[in-house]
Predict the structure.
Amino acid sequence: MGCKMDKLAIVVPCYNEEEVLPLTSDTLRGVLDALIEKEKIAEDSFILFVNDGSRDRTWELIEKEHAKHSQIRGLKLAGNVGHQNALTAGLLTAMDMSDVTVSIDADLQDDVNVIEEMMDKFHEGKDIVYGVRSGRSTDSFLKRTTAQGFYRFMSLMGVKTIYNHADFRLMSRRAVEQFSQYGESNLFLRGMVPLIGYETDSVYYERRERAAGKSKYPLKKMLALAFNGITSFSIKPINLITALGILMVIGSVLAAVYAFISYFTGNVVPGWTSLILSVWFIGGVQLLAIGLVGQYIGKIYMEVKHRPRYNIEKIL
Ligand code: UDP
Ligand code: MG
């Protein structure tokens, strides 16, 4: 690593991107040519378009680009598996054919000009370089606030992510190889990549508007991504339910003591105590029970992932 002519693979997941694909192809080939010119990457570096079961002409366009330009390669998935899975398919395919990968969305919202900076950091010995948005002025108010709320909530829930970083990042071959050891099926890459543990760095850029086409992430998919991100990385919600259950049980016991004292001091409201106490107590016990079951499911779930228990950095 660190030697000059590393083979770069740019991995681009595409879902119904016919409107923007030719432009993306031109732009990214421009980036490759410039980097080859500056002798920062090998001449056989390439762009891998991953077609995530598009229902428009995306795949035909990829085939066309491939026929015209040797630098363009394509990977066709059998159906729509979603951005995270498509990106993973691309990374794992590119892994065996390259020394370093950069993943980027098809819509050119991320600044392709910082890829050079990413390569420089790679040559300095970094294994992972995050593309971080320094501003979101072009995003709609809704997108901006929900996205920022999402990052805050994630960290509240104990999921370590890089603030304002999505899936625009450089990964060395060994980082992708290590990532391939993470056997989980609920993928949330920006939570997983920081777990790899190699040396990382960030580059900053302004996020632009989509070059063409519409967002493939409607609110529903965004919420699904957020929910998956939290439940795949944290059992904090289960802990919260358990804590709530314990509080309610304690609360109902205290209320029982209060009712007992009231009984002897003589100011009892008939019917109230038995009703409210049983509601609280049963509710509390139920929450506690669910929480407890959840604890076990949480354990099973962490087990079932078969994550590697350690990453070997070097062997002498
Ligand atoms: N994408 C995908 N599969 C999907 C949805 C999206 O491969 O099911 C790709 C899409 O083509 C794009 C990237 O994921 O390259 C990000 O999607 P988009 O730009 O629509 O998301 P946004 O930037 O609006 O969050
Ligand atoms: Mg986008």
Notes: The chain has a mean pLDDT of 88. The longest strand covers residues 128-135.
